[in-house]
Amino acid sequence: MSVSPVFQPLLLPNGRSLPNRLVKAAMEEGLAAPGQLPGPEFERLYRTWAEGGVGLMLTGNVMVDARALTGPGGVVLEASSPLEGFRAWAGAAQTHGGQVWMQINHPGRQVLAAMGEVALAPSAVALDLGKHSAMFGSPRAMTEAEIAEVIARFAATARRAAEAGFDGVQVHAAHGYLISQFLSPLTNRRNDAWGGSLPNRARLLVEVVRAVKAAVPAGFGVGAKLNSADFQRGGFSEADAREVVLLLNAEGLDLLELSGGSYESPAMQGRTADGRTLAREAYFLEFAQQLAAVATMPLMTTGGITRLPVAEQVLASGVALVGLGTALAMVPELPRRWQAGEPAVAPRPDVAWKDKALASLATMALVRRQLQRMAVGRAPQGSGSPLWALITDQWRTRRLTRRYRAWRAAAR
Ligand SMILES: Cc1cc2nc3c(=O)[nH]c(=O)nc-3n(C[C@H](O)[C@H](O)[C@H](O)COP(=O)(O)O)c2cc1C
Q1: Residue ranges of the domains in the chain?
Q2: CB of 272 closer than 6 A to ligand 1?
Q3: Which residue numbers delimit the NADH:flavin oxidoreductase/NADH oxidase N-terminal domain (predicted)?
Q4: DSSP-derived secondary structure for 346-376
Q5: What is the DSSP string of 340-354?
Q6: Contact 180, 174 (CB under 8 A)
Q7: CA–CA dist 136, 114 (Å, integer)
Q8: Could you identify the atom of ligand 1 that is nearest to the CA of residue 371?
Q9: Model pLDDT for residues 234-255, shown as the tens digit of each residue
């Protein structure tokens, strides 16, 4: 039997090899221990994925600033955070020959109002989620000094990730978070050096990548996750994304992941606000394939992939790596099963509710539930009630939000 190209190693520009082409995409674990630090749950969860045979694990997004979290169970890594839990996390992920990179992020305006912090953004443009908009507060436009601080924070978090033993970092520049807000003309209305033209809108991303590269040792992986588009009228377009890739070609990235969408237009879940139809599987493949012709760094695409033939089609399109999120939450041993010749397909939760925002939250809650199960040594559950998952997720979020607010109050 010939070996599937999916199980061929990949030599990255930093000189290090990945054992195969399958990557666990970033999924926020929401499992932080008090102090927003990783505890033993992270070790169990990542050891499970490592045993499953995936070549590279991208962690769920880790926050560069304790004042700005994507959710109250999120992990924070700042210049003075204790590293023990991070060391144990990286070590557990590396037990079977795969690499682990930390995804690093600042959410900008995508911070829940209940967190009780001031949300910063390129411009004072609030999220529009229709009747659910009040979940998020109105952001304040950042000053130049705050932009410089954010860049320094990304660099500090990356340096500490290297100290803790991670193999690399991925800068989150997708999904409507801060860097993605700077990239999009809908959220970036600035008329200084950080807004307007595409090079100005991309300046924060480029400066963060440069600062991160300057802060980490040689051979440490540096990547980014970029939207192929916002999928919103007047937003960050595919032509913009192509230009950003051309800018990034000069920055020596080891990996560029292509995704799409934001909270307002969740294309990463296969749904868009502007009504565009995405492919049923491998949502962003067509775009990734076009970019493969101009990108000098290895590309990866994530979104909707659950079957080996689709993973093979991604590689045949000139894309170097295949990102799997939901599939590895449902079936963590999928890579090993594919390698053993099993035609395994990971199930996808399908929540067909009328309220798209609630359906999206319930889908996320169902997937997150599987991470919580694996984190305590249980197997994922193939199915479950989306309503129950959403209700228990909301309870949990409320409890963790109280804990976060008490922690922040004590820090102040
Ligand atoms: C529970 C959950 C948490 C996620 N957290 C993150 C995250 O922290 N960072 C990120 O870039 N993407 C995150 N994503 C998006 C995934 O990385 C991926 O882009 C998306 O789920 C589409 O891929 P899939 O169809 O293979 O799941 C998350 C997705 C889910 C379901």
Answers
A1: 5-345
A2: no
A3: 6-341
A4: --------S-HHHHHHHHHHHHHHHHHHHHT
A5: TT------------S
A6: yes
A7: 8
A8: 1
A9: 999 999 999 999 999 999 999 9
